[in-house]
Hints:
A hairpin with an 8-residue loop joins strand 7 (about 200-205) and strand 8. The protein folds into 2 domains: about 1-145, Fervidobacterium nodosum Rt17-B1 like (Heat Shock Protein 90); about 150-250, Actin, Chain A, domain 4 (Alpha-Beta Complex). The protein has a 6-stranded mixed beta sheet, covered by helices on one side. It contains 4 helices and 9 strands, in the order αββαββββαβββα. The two termini are about 30 Å apart. Helix content is about 25%, strand content about 25%. The chain is flat, with a radius of gyration of 20 Å. It is of the alpha+beta class.
Amino acid sequence: xxxxxxxxxxxxxxxxxxxxxxxxxxxxxxxxxxxxxxxxxxxxxxxxxxxxxxxxxxxxxxxxxxxxxxxxxxxxxxxxxxxxxxxxxxxxxxxxxxxxxxxxxxxxxxxxxxxxxxxxxxxxxxxxxxxxxxxxxxxxxxxxxxxxxxxxxxxxxxxxxxxxxxxxxxxxxxxxxxxxxxxxxxxxxxxxxxxxxxxxxxxxxxxxxxxxxxxxxxxxxxxxxxxxxxxxxxxxxxxxxxxxxxxxxxxxxxxx
Length: 256
């Protein structure tokens, strides 16, 4: 699992590894386009499947995003280490920063390609942080759009998913904690969270339309860091399709 490798390879100070739920990219993808830069101040890694390179417009987008992220991260890392060294005195040197981005394809349907960007960052401190972002590539207009923009209302989206999402989230919480969740608790980690505030990944079991939705909550979103992230997989229902904007509705189908 890619993110598990991230946690092992990075100089973390905690000995507790959080449980991971999010679907990771393969540990050793058969074909990967990867850029790695390593200095005394940082390690930067950015990769994506070579299958995505076949789309020249998407390939150009990923390369530009890679270069932008590298410039941002390397500038910040060099600045922080330079400033730290200037005031460090006899204190230990600031640990090298680490930033890793790996893309995977979630679904490929007519007109759209659903993609997930896994990321991991370490900027000093007790431990790193990780998570995922999701995007939809429009193969006709050659534009990247956010899945949330396909729905006309976050409130309607949350209402359509709430019952199934909250139930499955609490089942996973109970499994990780070894005890049922107290639904009337004042603890925020016992309460349900808005699905629309999390990472929304659109999937397909048929290749013809989006019929699955994955809601991914990163560390601290639904539980303490040690619990890791959460991923709830839900079938697309008519109630969900009713929240989709008319322009995108033909790309969704009810999960059979």
